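seq:
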Amino acid sequence: MRSKIFVFAGAAAIALLATGCTDKGGPAAAPATPGSAPVTESTTAPAGTPSAAPVTSKPIVTPVKTVKPTPAGDPGDGGNWFAALAPCPNKGQKVEVEKMTTGDLTGDGVDDVAVARTCTAITSYWPSTVEIFDGAAGGEKPKRIATLLGDLGSADVPAVQSLKVNGRVLTITAYGVSAKAPTACPDLKLTYEYKYSAGTVARTSRKAVTSKDCLPIQ
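struct:
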């Protein structure tokens, strides 16, 4: 019995000794470096998948403002109103349109046309007049029904600034020259009112305010 135990113990010892001599452990794993990013597997997009378009920035474009030429007629209704204006009295002078407005001045349900105009001048400026055209007559062959401010040209020397139709009343604002001021230095702020009645347009009021400074004529 003792010999069997001895043989068994000797065999176990030999086995342990052999294992210690022949088993070599692998290298120890390197410790993780703090802050290192985890390793991820790269993925490849499947064939046929369109790639994302590159992002590009467009330069900022500032719009350029252009000065429009004076139209040859009312662009709203196709009327030939400007061509129907009375010619300037002197040779070489050209008509210049200052303001234009529309409104039913005659009360017939159709908008009439009021055009403020002047003439070119070598020195100072030429006084304005306002021509009224009957809207019911149409724009192909405009019918002039009144010319305003002509009787005030030598007195006020008006330069029209605005036109407004309200019912059968036309209000005109203008700059002008008093008897004490030179023509090159307008010093009056003028307001005229005209009313249409029984086929005529007559002035119903004139207001003038004196300015201490010269008023700009454009």
